[in-house]
Write a structure and sequence with these properties.
single chain; 321 residues; alpha+beta; Diaminopimelate Epimerase, Chain A, domain 1; 15 strands; 36% strand
Length: 321
């Protein structure tokens, strides 16, 4: 199985470019379901130890259904399938440039939750136009054992996020353990209290926001991903969720710039436009909340190429866990 590794703002992506499973010719959403049902061992083999790690996000390069798309991709991590991945999309763009499949310009990428636009500025700088994003519920309070009430917004940015503007401690790298523990406790409380996204899906990303800590940044965040690892980047879908929450509150105008800084100091530049009537009609559950189309700019760098080998008799050929 041949892969190309990259990182986007410090967050790694491993893209399977050859030797992945045959998922048939259905939609990307249907192929994602086949992947999850029949080929979970491939996911584990690719991103779990001993070949991978908890914070590695994987992607399977696929033939798209939409002929206007340069490629299709299905994203996954150490515990399962993902709907979308913003930093991973930038990593896919950088990988496709590295492979000579695309060059500077505007390209489309098909994902299980819709078509994403990638504007390649150069070999490493990419702007993605994400799927329609919107705030589902505002100021939701959850009772977290030993921590009291925690309040945040439930927002769709390509994944479901609980966005909290009152972090449990300072957002710095030395506090990662405390932040992780707090985010895991919030996530468990959301599940226990039955607090979900509009489709009943788990609010499986926890996003703590605080003030920016370097010149020119509007905010710093800490994102806990579903597998229990924190996002080294500012998180593309998480930044999209932040933009949607700001738009819903009237705190950021269309076209205005929002600079989101990660826990390690890497940056994404975010902007949004309001969704068209046609785009908004696809999300009836929004119930009048502004639906936005986010654009996120960041940098991605290819870090390696490899062939993953499964030797006969290896007890951990399909990964640990």
């Amino acid at each position: 199985m041949d892969v190309v590794d990259s990182h986007t703002g410090g967050e790694p992506t491993r893209l399977i470019i050859r030797g992945g499973p045959d998922l048939g010719s259905g939609s990307l959403a249907e192929r994602r379901a086949v992947f999850a049902r029949d080929f979970d061992h491939v996911r584990r083999r690719c991103v779990n130890e001993p070949r991978g790690s908890d914070f590695l996000v994987g992607g399977l390069l696929c033939e798209p259904i939409d002929p206007s798309c340069a490629a299709g991709v299905i994203f996954f991590n150490n515990v399962g399938m993902l709907h979308m991945c913003g930093h991973g999309t930038m990593g896919v763009a950088a990988t496709l440039v590295h492979l000579g499949r695309i060059g500077p310009g505007v390209h489309q990428l098909e994902t299980p939750v819709g078509v994403v636009t990638m504007e390649v500025h150069d070999a490493n700088r990419v702007t993605i136009q994400n799927v329609p994003s919107w705030r589902y519920r505002e100021a939701v309070s959850v009772d977290v054992p030993e921590r009291g009430q925690v309040t945040g917004d439930i927002v769709w940015g390509g994944n479901w996020f609980f966005c909290c503007n009152e972090p449990p401690c300072e957002l710095r790298l030395g506090n990662v353990r405390q932040l992780t523990d707090a985010a895991e406790a919030v996530k468990a409380a959301l599940v226990q209290q039955g607090t979900t996204g509009a489709d009943g899906g788990e609010t499986d990303h926890i996003d703590f926001f605080g003030p920016g800590q370097t010149d020119g940044s509007d905010s710093r965040n800490f994102v806990l991903c579903p597998g229990g690892a924190y996002d080294r980047s500012p998180c593309g879908t998480g930044t999209s969720a932040k933009l949607a929450a700001l738009a819903a509150s009237g705190a950021l105008e269309p076209g205005a710039t929002w600079v989101q800084e990660s826990i390690i100091g890497s940056r994404f530049i975010g902007r949004y436009r309001l969704a068209s009537e046609e785009e908004a009609s696809l999300i009836p559950a929004a119930n009048g909340t502004p639906i936005i189309i986010p654009s996120i700019t960041g940098q991605a760098f290819v870090t390696g190429e490899a062939t993953l080998i499964c030797q006969e008799g290896d007890p951990f050929a399909n990964g640990i866990g």
